[in-house]
Amino acid sequence: GGKVYKLGLSLAITGPTSDAGNPYAKGVEDYFKFVNETNILGDDKIDCTIRDDQYKTDITKRNFEEYLDDGIVMYLNYSTGSTLGLKRDFEEERIAVLPASYHAGNLDDSNYIFLPVASYSEQLVALSEYVAQNHTDGKAKVAMFIHPSAFGRGPVDDAKKAVAAGLNLEIVEVVEHGKDLDNSAMLKRLMSKDVQYVLCHTVQSPVATMLKDSSRLGLTAKTYGEQGKLTFLGVHYTGGNDLIALAGDACEGYFWTCSFNLTSEKGEGTTKQLALAQLYGRDDKAANSHNYAAGIMVAQVATETIKRVKAKGKKITKETLYNELNSMNGANAYNPYTTMGPVTYSKTDRAGVDMLQIYSVQNGVFKKIGEPMQSKFMKKIK
Amino acid sequence: MGKNLLEVNNIEVVYNDIIQVLRGVSLNIPKGGIVSLLGTNGAGKTTTLRAISGLLKPENGAIKEGYIKFNGTDTTHLMGTDIVKMGAVMVPEGRRVFKHLTVNENIIVGSITRKDGSAKIREDNELMYKHFPRLSNVTNRMAGYSSGGEQQMIAIARALMAAPEMLMLDEPSLGLAPLLVKEIFDNIQKINKELDTTILVVEQNAKVALAISDYAYIMESGKIVLEGPSKELQDNPDVKEFYMGITKGGKRKSFKDVKSYKRRKRWM
Amino acid sequence: MSANSWLATGNFHTTYRQEQKTFFTSLDRSVFTLFLLILFFWPLLFPLSNKYMLVVDNILIAIVAVMGLNLVTGFAGLISIGHAAFVGIGAYTIASFCRTIGDSHIIVTHFWPVLILISGFVGAAFGALVGLPALRLKHLYLAIATLSFQMIFQWVINFMTFFNQGQTIFVGRVFWFTGKVGRNDHYLFWYYIILVIVVLLGFGVRNLLKTRYGRSLVAVRDNDRAADAMGINPGLTKVYAFALAGFFAGVAGALHAYLYRGVGFESFTLHESISYLAMAIVGGLGTLNGSFWGPVAIKFLDLQVEHLSEAAGQYLPSSMNLATALKPFSFGLVIVLFLMFEPRGIANWWRIAKSYTKLWPFRY
Amino acid sequence: MAHLTVSDVTLSFGGLKALSNVDMIIEPGLITSIIGPNGAGKTSMLNCISGFYHPTRGDIFYKDKKLTNSSPHQVSNMGIARAFQNLELFSGLSVLDNLLLARHQNLKYSFLHAIFFYGKASRIEAENRAHVETIIDFMELEPYRKSLVGNLSYGVQKKVEVARALTLAPDILLLDEPMAGMNQEEKEDIVRFVMDIQKEKEITVVLVEHDLGVVMDISDQIYVLDFGEVIGSGTPEEVAQNPKVIEAYIGED
Amino acid sequence: MSYFFQILVSGIVVGSIYALAALGLVLVYKSSRVANFAHGQIIAAGAFITYYLTVGLGIPIFFSFLVGMIITFFLAMSVERIFLRRLIGEPIISVIMVTIGLASIIDGLIFITPFGTENFSFPQFLPQTPLTFGGVSISWTQLVGVIITCLLIGAFSWFFKKSTVGISMRAVSDDQFGAMSVGISVPKVFGLAWATAGLSAAAAGCIIGNITGLNFETLQAFGIIVFPVVILGGLDSILGAVVAGIIMGLIQQFASGYLDGNFGLNGTGDVMPYIILLIILLFKPHGLFGIHEIERV
Ligand SMILES: Nc1ncnc2c1ncn2[C@@H]1O[C@H](COP(=O)(O)OP(=O)(O)OP(=O)(O)O)[C@@H](O)[C@H]1O
Ligand SMILES: Nc1ncnc2c1ncn2[C@@H]1O[C@H](COP(=O)(O)OP(=O)(O)OP(=O)(O)O)[C@@H](O)[C@H]1O
Ligand SMILES: [Mg+2]
Ligand SMILES: [Mg+2]
């Protein structure tokens, strides 16, 4: 018999953000099942415990303690709050962590957190760059529509830094939204301040409500950057199929950055993703979710790391896995089928996939806009 | 006087499964009559009325023995609503008007169990103000602000709106000034005559109760200890002394002279 | 009293003072002492894993908080839907120290007992402040006022940069006579600290309830107008009840901060307030021992359901959310069933059991 | 000197005048009764004295202290106790606890004493209990000592109501219809209590009662209210002769 | 100026939806003095049932609105029968806690379905072009929402004021024993109260679902948001719910229209209702229209 490697994932399967957490959990679960059934690690198996933490740091901590008691070798986490909150524990335990939160702050004062893809900050700055580049006359006036939490606020400062570093746009306002039923007031206010672009960093449902209101008020730009109208753009968790489900026609022309391949753009990766989903009987909704892809992706990275350590004939421990992750660059970069580009980690760079794809909603599906790109200003402000 | 409308046979009532309050109470109420039920505090008069009107349950009480028949039907284990529908309505102790409803709304609520059409109900509603003219001045006032006497009238009118065959009153004179007591009891008598409503009245004020009733029961510690036509009881020396405060000489005895010792009642 | 106090079976009181005693018989006292000894020694004999020790510590903290909630809601009858916010006030008192003087400043790491006490008083101060509406508001109106406080608390923490906008504020490791309390001893260490606090506060409450300070709480619950006529200032009593609850909550919050070595606002949301209420009710409102039963029961249930839903997740088609659904479902179901069939809480079972043993073998 | 002076008190609720220009003098050591039809303002008068209502106009003095705007607990602390017309008991508590509670103001020990329950607190609580037991004896409530007040019959609850007011050991006792809902025999008992209270404990009693027999027999002084106004006052004999009183209240017999 | 008016109109629209969501809470409170913390879940259930009828079973949308309301009516009624009936006469806090537990149970049940975590939206059935008057625009969805709200609220107001059953429901909340003595069946009244609350909740759920899309978290959060509304209006007043709903809607819209993003403030729309509530309660402890408890000693 082979060995069993223990991993743990704690995430919000219920509670806030569970609309993302749910498919994410499915992705992780399915991929590990697939690994075990198809003997990707030979005789060895991966045993990944998945536990709900309802988006609460306290429960996450308890789950983490239990995983430690169980002897996990790598940890998969989810929320921004808990990743930040457990940072010190990760340091003390010297355990590599792959969170679903791409918050740039996860990387500060910490050596063990590995962001799977480019940070929110990088995504938001990249979007800002896109706006600045494609804006035709003068300085683009931008508002930010932000989730009222650590998750939402993190990238705002970086965007401001980018502006200070010479990015040619003006951030007119940063709005932290609430649970509004009607965003008319806010949209009108933005219009009154001549705002032309709204950069969103929150979750889907408030964006959907805003898009609907904007379209009702006739404020949505028909084409990118239309004068006197609003063009909406957003970061990872603002988009996806759920946004289309919620906002319907109102989200036509919405711009979105994502580091994952979407099933609406057929490719080798998405075919595999759909096959995996079909193998384990997932419904269409989960199968096509980019959060499902994100879940698969962290499982892929974990599996790949274990595989490489094994290949070197070393014991699988927290330490060897950590070191292996750090050497995942250059020729050793790993290319999972789920992402836009390769995953690269090093002692100095712990954001995995650096490539971003901009998508836009056209006729009810997200379509690629241009080629995968990388943020330039993010390097400047670091 | 006709046959018995209500027949209470040897009932025993227990609260909270342990506190036995009634120990074999039997009553007979003839159709169209007025019967009064007297007794000391805690004797179980209120409990008896609750038992008859099916309202023991909310107080966590239950009838353990015996039966109650109303109009020939066994109602021992029926719920309050059904008993009201059958025509026995109680005016509870302490009036219990709906404080935040207007006087008229209080009265209208009484008709909730009736099925005989809104015209008839409206007619009865008018009739109540004929019986209790005092209320017609305050129809739209919140009942909670009415005086004690008015509240008692509201409670009686409310009960009458159910067009009951039998009306049970629990201490209607409670806290009322002498003139009002008189008015209320005159009304009770009138209702008995004009609407042909059978009446069971629980009272502490033995004088007025015996004056209007045909028959009376006296209750102590959960048992009926004395019964008879009201006329006879009025002359019973014990009743006279203990319930009406009249000395052997026939004079009212002064409260100033109450002694600290107690004479034993002969029925005990 | 009979000559041999061990054989005393009834209440033989010859003075009223004897009736005030905490333990009526020596047997009672001995059983209790034994119980305490067990509480102190079991972790040494049967060491638990970190996770379970954390759970146990958590239960003890919840007991502190629920004792407070029980005083204001159970004894004084003032429904508080903002108790977690008070707990949060305690935790954020510690966090404020960490923010201003640094999370490994000697005051934070060495003088933690003082900080815990301070947190209690800060909690009490806020309790009194939030209790002020009780001077005018009653019943649900008051309950919703406390809900408002909860919401305002969340908003303030979430938006103020001083509080790190709700993100975790770290708290350093504390020192004991033996030096720094390290990772491995952390949960055990706090177990003993919290246990001592629970025992002290428990006796405090028990004594309080025998005196006018406790009775006045019950008086305003049952009938505040009559209380007024009996010379009890109902307004002041209500404010005082909130302050008391605030104190307990503040202490619990401080303990929470130290135990988790960090303070983040998710630990003090409306949902937590509601679980504190659930604990108080399931335990038994208006009883002291209910404050112990409730947290134990609810946290234990939580754990069991987690296991159950995990087990279920393995066997059921994973395309169903059944495993995740099980948790809120069974949590709700237990609360509802409990209230439907035992609205007076576990404390009532305790009472029944006790009266049974007293009468045994003579039932009735 | 008069114990309690009510001078020119008016109390209005919106348009309704519950009391208008009422003057009353309550002499120490006597039984003063207030009678009148329902809604005449008797309870309102007691409410004004005990601080539940504050007169719209006029003043109330106790000895030299003005208590017009005091709140109920302040009045109670001055030594004026009150039994309510509609039961206002702590219905979830036992009779004993109801009485223990009433002694709140007389128990002087600090919060710290209470928490640790040492010295003063425990001694004073024991004394408190002893005091309450004498009242239970006095009012013959022994059988009900430990029963929940809410489960007692109306009459017994009324008795507890009076007992609780007595427990306060007041100078003045305000009784609002203590005999409502009692039969002759029980009324006699209560009368005996009231008279004993007055004689033995030298407590001034203010009595509101509808039973004229009782009022006429035991009062030293009677005030008759009707529609919020004093329509007659004096000794029982004087009042009984007053035609206005007969018309408004007593009726022709 | 159109800025101001747009905010005003939006405030009123949002407010009337609050009012409708709050209505169910008022209905239950009015007859049983119970604050229902599971109201948000019932709103969500109503919305999802309707969604299922339209999309899953393909019933025409107006018809499925009706059917959805009726189903929720019976659903809420059975909730009362199963869970709350035993608790008649128990302390209010126990009953409140039962509703909290109930909320959790319904959460669990909804989590079994895809509705618990995923997002959906109703098919579009109303014209998409908004109605615009002088620069102020309102969508058809909002307009229909406001009209349904007005109709339902008008109907319930009449019911409580005039019909004998309505009056008897109020009577029960005043004095249960007194109500039983005149033959009112208290359990029936409670069942009816819950049922009508369910009906209004379903209506609210559909309207909100049409505006924001169907997201369980969002829908269920209404159960809490309505509390400041009903308290401000006075727990037992339907009129109060309407007025307070609109006030809250306006506060939120004006807060987010004028405060947010201006003074370094943000998210004020979420907290202002609670602050305003506290301030108003200081002056009107029974809310704007709540009846004053008649307390005569
Ligand atoms: N809900 C209850 N639970 C327990 N015991 C009760 C309950 N209600 C009444 N009792 C007891 O039952 C006995 C009879 O009470 P009941 O109210 O029937 O007396 P009553 O004759 O109406 O007296 P009163 O004239 O004082 O009203 C009393 O001893 C009382 O304590
Ligand atoms: N809180 C109040 N609000 C409005 N009106 C009140 C209030 N309290 C009393 N009243 C009114 O004041 C008047 C006097 O009432 P009060 O209770 O003093 O009468 P009473 O003489 O004690 O009558 P009873 O003999 O019935 O007890 C009544 O008309 C009553 O409706
Ligand atoms: Mg009685
Ligand atoms: Mg009175």
TrEMBL record, chain B:
Keyword RNA-binding included in the entry's annotation: no
Organismal lineage: Bacteria, Pseudomonadati, Thermodesulfobacteriota, Desulfobacteria, Desulfobacterales
Matching SUPFAM superfamilies: P-loop containing nucleoside triphosphate hydrolases (SSF52540)
One Pfam family this sequence matches: ABC_tran
Organism superkingdom: Bacteria
Ranges of residues in domain ABC transporter: 6-246
Segments forming a coiled coil: none
One Gene Ontology term from the biological process aspect of the record: L-amino acid transport
Signal sequence bounds: none
GO function terms (MF aspect): ATP binding; ATP hydrolysis activity; branched-chain amino acid transmembrane transporter activity
Keywords linked to the UniProt accession: Amino-acid transport, ATP-binding, Nucleotide-binding, Transport
Annotated protein name in UniProt: LivF2: high-affinity branched-chain amino acid transport ATP-binding protein
InterPro entries with a match to the protein in the record: AAA+_ATPase, ABC_transporter-like_ATP-bd, BCAA_Transport_ATP-bd_LivF, P-loop_NTPase
Gene: livF2
Family: Belongs to the ABC transporter superfamily.
From TrEMBL, chain C:
UniProt GO molecular function: branched-chain amino acid transmembrane transporter activity
Compartments, record wording: Cell membrane
Any single Gene Ontology cellular-component annotation: plasma membrane
Main localization of the protein described in the UniProt heading: membrane
CDD domains listed in its UniProt record: TM_PBP1_LivM_like
Alphabetically ordered keywords of this record: Cell membrane, Membrane, Transmembrane, Transmembrane helix
Parts of the chain that traverse the membrane: 31-48, 60-91, 111-132, 139-157, 189-209, 239-259, 274-301, 322-341
Domain of life: Bacteria
Membrane topology, as annotated: Multi-pass membrane protein
InterPro entries: ABC_transp_permease, LivM-like
Cited Pfam families: BPD_transp_2 (PF02653)
PANTHER family: ABC TRANSPORTER PERMEASE PROTEIN, HIGH-AFFINITY BRANCHED-CHAIN AMINO ACID TRANSPORT SYSTEM PERMEASE
Protein name per UniProt: LivM2: branched-chain amino acid ABC transporter, permease protein
The gene coding this protein: livM2
From TrEMBL, chain D:
Signal peptide: none
Gene Ontology MF, one: ATP binding
InterPro entries attached to this UniProt entry: AAA+_ATPase, ABC_AA/LPS_Transport, ABC_transporter-like_ATP-bd, BCA_ABC_TP_C, P-loop_NTPase
ABC transporter domain boundaries: 4-252
GO cellular component: plasma membrane
Name of a matching Pfam family: ABC_tran
Gene3D superfamilies registered for this protein in UniProt: P-loop containing nucleotide triphosphate hydrolases
UniProt keyword list: ATP-binding, Nucleotide-binding, Transport
PROSITE patterns listed in its UniProt record: ABC_TRANSPORTER_2 (PS50893)
Alphabetical list of PANTHER family matching this protein: ABC TRANSPORTER ATP-BINDING PROTEIN, CONSERVED COMPONENT OF ABC TRANSPORTER FOR NATURAL AMINO ACIDS-RELATED
Protein name, UniProt field: Amino acid/amide ABC transporter ATP-binding protein 1, HAAT family (TC 3.A.1.4.-)
Organism: Desulfobacula phenolica
From TrEMBL, chain E:
Main localization, broad class: membrane
GO cellular component: plasma membrane
Subcellular location(s) per record: Cell membrane
Residue stretches spanning the membrane: 6-27, 34-53, 59-79, 91-117, 137-160, 189-212, 224-251, 263-283
GO molecular function, one term: transmembrane transporter activity
Keyword entries, A-Z: Amino-acid transport, Cell membrane, Membrane, Transmembrane, Transmembrane helix, Transport
GO term, biological process aspect, one: amino acid transport
Bilayer topology: Multi-pass membrane protein
PANTHER family: ABC TRANSPORTER PERMEASE PROTEIN, BRANCHED-CHAIN AMINO ACID TRANSPORT SYSTEM PERMEASE PROTEIN LIVH
Family of this protein: Belongs to the binding-protein-dependent transport system permease family. LivHM subfamily.
Record's protein name: LivH2: branched-chain amino acid ABC transport system permease protein
